[in-house]
Write the structure tokens for this entry.
Amino acid sequence: MKKKILKTMAALMTVVTIVGTAYIPSDAMTLFYASKGRRNTKVYVEAMFTANMKTNTTDYGLKKNKYVKKVTIRLKEGSYNKSKSTTKGGNLISLTKTNNPLKTSSASWTWYYK
């Protein structure tokens, strides 16, 4: 009886592990992160950084071996032109708006270093 319970628990843990990893987003956030694009009917831009951590990559347009002190994001589409900044590491900032297919949208981010 005890072996059957252990086998059942092992099987359940295997299923949870497989199913759990299947739902990890491919753009999971790391120490430094930025993303832009379209989700359903919205256009978006988002970014974040980890304070007091030296950049270890050139992904997202970062300069390697620098300390980020601020990130600014911008979203434009037609007359919509908004930006947002943060100097607090670990805070995800984002801008989102409903996409107008008749207008061209653009999104960007800018990193500032210490």
Remarks:
- Strands lie at 32-39, 42-49, 68-77, 80-86, 93-98, 105-113.
- The longest helix spans residues 2-22.
